[in-house]
Fold this sequence. Notes:
Helices cover 36% and strands 21% of the residues. It has 14 helices and 15 strands. Bound molecules: zinc ion.
Amino acid sequence: MKKIRKCCVIVLLVVLFPANIFAQERRDKEQTYVLENPYEVNKITPLQGKKIKNVVLMIGDGMSLMHVYSAWTANCGKLFLDNCQAVGLSKTYCANKLITDSGAGGTAIATGQKTNYHSVGVDVEGRPLKSLVDFAVGKGKSAGIAVTCRLWDATPADFCCHNKDRDAEAEIVADYVNSNVDYVFGGGAKLFENREDGRDLFKELRDKGFQTPRSWDELVKIKSGKVFAVPYPVDAPLPDERGDLLARASLKGIELLSQNDNGFFMMIEGSQLDDYGHFNDINLLMQETHDFDRTIGAIYEWAAKDGETLVVVTADHETGGLTLVDGDLKEGKIVCKFSTGGHSGVMVPVYAFGPGAQEFTGIYENTAIFDKIKKLLNL
Ligand SMILES: [Zn+2]
């Protein structure tokens, strides 16, 4: 009888928290990953001495130096990130916790203020904060975001929405209608329509002048104007199924935003490094990290040609307590362990490329990333 009850509890737990249960099984065990087809990486050098007109901020959610070094090893000793010109370290703790989440971590980068755990785009009193999106648009620039996760997830919301509880998903999504953003690409259509409050957010966005393509094919046809693209009910497909979607969606955003002669600010997120870190799944985590690195390569290429675009790559915090314990550079093999199913406390890297890159050297608070971008863009 006791055995049956125990079985029932386990079955119930697996049903309720499948990722957590599997993550627990994987925790502290060595996981081996070999990248079957390493990708080529070319040298990309930006033009020197030009002024800064645009900033592309790229956030690998949960990406630490260990993720980058593991991905570098698996790709046989090369990454597009290696083209960066300056490196710094960011302290990620939030207002009321040592180990932050994407809500408070991303809010610090987006708004320049440390806030409480689980807050998005608000201060410790719950008051709305202006983000780099708002400051850029306030100065006549355009602003956009591109992510592969659902749009109520904390990182995109940190830049466009305001809520002291990141779990208030329906409220957060409705806040996009009030955002100053000009281009959005992400998942999460299911909370934009058929809502409990009866609102059709796609219609409200169209009334505000947005085009609302619901597929990649619809999006590519758009050549100008404001765009709010949500092709997926929740998240975009897994990295090996979606191909170079993040790079394409980001470059599409840049194509539209760069039509503004005053320049633009764009945030691009490698969204699911965090999810796969929580799952303690090295296979998916490396796929996502390599996808993010190839997206970085595509953005570096564009920025190098443009010459007036600064690209900053960083993270909001570390996820999984990832450790590389063995591997082989020639074989592209890594042996890793995870120490937690949550986030860990460690400074995260900041990589800068293009005009103004040298401003990002040193050790600083995560809020300084906001300060530096605001100053460099004269916002
Ligand atoms: Zn997380």
